[in-house]
Amino acid sequence: MLEDKTPQRTPLSQLGEFGLIHHLTQHFEVKQASTLKSIGDDAAILDFNGKKTVVSTDLLIEGVHFDLSYMPLKHLGYKAVVVNLSDIAAMNAKPTQITVSIAVSNRFPLEALEELFEGIAMAAKIYQVDVVGGDTTSSQKGMILSITAIGEADEQEIVYRNGAKENDLLVVTGDLGSAYMGLQVLEREKQVFQVNPNNQPDLDNYTYLIERQLKPEARTDIRELLEKLEVKPTSMIDISDGLSSEIIHICKQSKVGCNLFEEKIPVDPQFINVCEEFNIDSTTVAINGGEDYELLFTIALEDFDKIKANPNFTVIGHMTQESEGIHLITRANTKIPLKARGWDAISE
Amino acid sequence: MLEDKTPQRTPLSQLGEFGLIHHLTQHFEVKQASTLKSIGDDAAILDFNGKKTVVSTDLLIEGVHFDLSYMPLKHLGYKAVVVNLSDIAAMNAKPTQITVSIAVSNRFPLEALEELFEGIAMAAKIYQVDVVGGDTTSSQKGMILSITAIGEADEQEIVYRNGAKENDLLVVTGDLGSAYMGLQVLEREKQVFQVNPNNQPDLDNYTYLIERQLKPEARTDIRELLEKLEVKPTSMIDISDGLSSEIIHICKQSKVGCNLFEEKIPVDPQFINVCEEFNIDSTTVAINGGEDYELLFTIALEDFDKIKANPNFTVIGHMTQESEGIHLITRANTKIPLKARGWDAISE
């Protein structure tokens, strides 16, 4: 029997706006007790029952934030949700609902949106958040995604960026830089593909890095873990733009300085190998490459014993007086001022 | 003395993303008691103190939802906020906060974004809502605006689309169709301008219509008014897509039918004149033209006496059994099935 490999392509106009919204959202289940009314009216109704409401929003534009030539739509949907949940986690709050708005040009058939929503649904299921609203519209060019995440927290749980104190320890979850190197690998494969479309890429040596780029996770597990360890961070932020940029945010808002130790920065062995292959300095990438979506936080010195044995956490520095400035202490023990250069810095 | 008429144009790259956000949002004041933490961290923190949270979101794309050749940026900012507050009002809730995300291509200088945010700030001030978050990014083409509105309500106050009952009266606020005819006037002037750029348009006869299109208002006043009159609607929706489309939403979700009376539909005298000038049927426009942002709701028959003397309200029909269908009763007393055709219907 011959398989029909022609992909099915249903034009969006066939469903109309309301039909499309119904088609894409019909399988979303309500799981949060705080969701009183979800999709289907002018607005959603939420009940946080005395808890504080936490809100964050992000806008993702094709060609600026993602490239569909190597980003499968399902991964895009998943990642778009994760990026927003990460912001809620960075307040030490629990994400509970999201709204999802999308605009697409007529080059996208229904099947493309189904794939995108499959990724959104998968993230919603894994992170136990309800999709409670959104908007579906057309764009003149490309795909646009706007996601708003809503969460809940008790007032005393919430951690802001501005609470770091002198002598606090600087702690990071997971490892850094891999998402950026994953992107470099994908960019290289894209160029190879453009020269020779029949070339089958061998990506076995890069699986961890590519997964960190295409399917990052939000560290919503950290809130519970810290609660169990009885540690409340003094300040917290998520790493979306790069470690140095986030450290500077905490320092500026908390009015403190910081010493970051190069030798302490956690990285994956695969990451080191690929930096060597690309002939690129691994510390530069670990400090400036973004999109790791790990959490960066400060804790009081006396809490060190509570976290030191936990493999999720690495102490990478300590906070100083504001007048001392923000520095990287290299392996050679030289002191370099830290700058928020982001990704541009790496390609210089 | 000669005036320098060269407009000042500051490239966005001069400020950087964080500088830009600070520059544009520094004058936003917090006015709502429920806003605990606004812009400046990973997320905003809201406290509704036992009330329910109401959330709605909208995505506006240049070339699809607005045309900057006749929509001044200040008006666009104002309208983008109003459109979202209207959704909150349509739940009989009180809007309290918004988040604003924008993406712009490099054709927009800083001064353009300042103008846009001036309109956003003006709407926030007039409607007493706090701007608590957002995202500013670049786009490959044109301007994209995503606004999420948040509101509060006691559970017993909230009005859904699905509560209309047989024999309920169908009521609308304000008048209909003017926003659509305002758009027609602006489109005509745009074409005149393209032929002869020196032609100064005389828009005196169209001021009301143009204002309805460029600077619509959200009926956030209706909630308090109905409370004072001791009327709780059985269902409610705002008129964004056109009266017929919204009636059908209420009927489908409430499982009822409806008779809408042509002679009762409230329109402005200027609207009638311009429909004649454009040789277009005024009822067709009043029923299918959208963007009036008036509220459409149903009330129990026994509440009629409470609203009948109020100039804000017009009874335009009544709900029937679902099996009777949804009809327009014309001035000639013929019964025509109502269809949700939207703007396309008018140009047919």
UniProtKB/TrEMBL annotation, chains A, B:
Gene3D superfamilies: PurM-like C-terminal domain, PurM-like, N-terminal domain
Pathway stated in the Swiss-Prot or TrEMBL entry: Cofactor biosynthesis; thiamine diphosphate biosynthesis; thiamine diphosphate from thiamine phosphate: step 1/1
Keywords: ATP-binding, Kinase, Magnesium, Metal-binding, Nucleotide-binding, Thiamine biosynthesis, Transferase
Coiled coil (residue ranges): none
Residues engaged in binding ATP: G134, D135, R161, S240
Presence of the UniProt keyword Flavoprotein in the record: no
Entry GO MF terms: thiamine-phosphate kinase activity
Binding site for Mg(2+) 1: T57, D58, D135
Purpose: Catalyzes the ATP-dependent phosphorylation of thiamine-monophosphate (TMP) to form thiamine-pyrophosphate (TPP), the active form of vitamin B1.
Name of the protein in question: Thiamine-monophosphate kinase
Organism of derivation: Flavobacterium sedimenticola
Gene transcribed to yield this protein: thiL
